[in-house]
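pasting for the record
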Amino acid sequence: MNITEAKEQVKYAVISYLSRNEFGDYIIPIERQRPLFLMGPPGIGKTDIITQIACEMDIALVSYSMTHHTRQSALGLPFIATKEYGGQEYRTTEYTMSEIIASVYDVMEATGKKEGILFLDEINCISETLAPSMLQFLQFKTFGRHRVPEGWVVVTAGNPAEYNDSVRDFDLATLDRLKRLDIEPDVKAWLSYAAEEDVHAAVVTYLEIKKDDFYSVRTTIDGKEFVTARGWVDLSDMIKLYEKNDLPVTIDLIRQYVHDERIARDFSAYYDLFYRFRKDYRIDEVLDGVLGPDVLARAARSRFDERLAVVRMITDALHQDFRDVYEDGKTIRALLQIVKDNKEAFSGDLPEALDGALAAVAKVREANKAALAKGRMSRAISKEDARIALAVETALSDFDMYLRKAGTVVGGPADTAGDRDGRLEDVVRAFFSAKNAERKARSTRTGERLEHAYRFLEQAYGGTGLTTESFDANAGEGGFGQRPSVDIGTGLPIGDASDRELLIFTTSLTENKYSADFISTYGSDAYFRHNKGLLLYEREKDLAGALEQLQ
């Protein structure tokens, strides 16, 4: 299965294990909850999906790599205790609490979350001294005499032996106590993840064209050469930081993340092309409605790899706009809820009511900061939720200053009679009116940029599609690679269809949650016009599949 399917299976298992009966007890007792065992190549995203599941389910997460643990650190250290049996004292050996179990209780205490996932990575690389104790742990969820708390699901992971020299084969008794999921690299599944995680457009486009370079491990005379999904994501993050700080992205940087010389050189060459495309096409100008005849002419005669790069650059630029509008909306809704929950504190005459309102804002800010800290400690908060929490904090700071100004400045929003007298509700209303005006301006600009993107793609590619023959003829003029038969990110055919670039662009908008939310909220005439073509293509594909089955 691919990583997306594995995430689904793990999440379903966690939901099932945490299900309770009518008496509030877990339906499957902890000793019968088989730990999940994710078996797959390194860097494929096993840890990431566990983090995502914890965030989505709002439960805690404790992660440990088992490679450095010995019997003593995992089970605890022995000590001598005194006990009384039958009226007589005896000295017995007991164990301190396992570091791993103690960490679970620490997170529960700090976050208040009583349910979570205990994720043990590299489980098949444990030391020889610890191996005999693992069977007991997998069966009864105990290290030494201390048990994993109820409500905590054990998930483990490991690499096949060909990727790790320290791997130990589990015996049948151990395997019979695990739910094993075998995961294989899948570039299409990863591209869906990349769209949500804002992976650099150069990385996405390169892998759409050269999908075999997504994941590779091979042995050469110089040793192992490899590239993993983790490497591409980390390289993407570093490229963005280099670009932000105006630093050159060179082959030396790429080699630090792509440990395959041929792939590193190919991507370096492609990135140079991509960077040149970005400068030549002036994407921000395109989205602002500036359609230079030179840019349109170049786009019309360009090769497939260049066209795909342009589509992805446009999508990448719009993605940030869509995300900003989405998070603006969630931030304003969170602020409105805060006002509703503290309605009495935000009503009354000024200036008398001001102190109560400021105290309420301060209290909410402290609570939000504590919730963010707990979420980060339990690792059960997504990057998106963390960004929104920080945006709410910034907005609350603005709200605080707005209230202070309204209560102290003559002529401010509270001034209704030539002095500081006024109603606090009017001040709150004026603040949210200003915030909504900012949001409306942002959403209007985003809608205009989306329409400009469609206008450019229609004028550049609509009716001037590159045929198979023309692509092959251009391939020798610096073409990046052979023409693929389909776009692997969308499944759309690549041939002589004149609007395939528009179909690829429309599909990317449909599959991304930020753009889909924007279009469903604000609409887009161009999107709905081209979405009809996409739906027609999907219908034709379904019919073709049905005919193949009949034949």
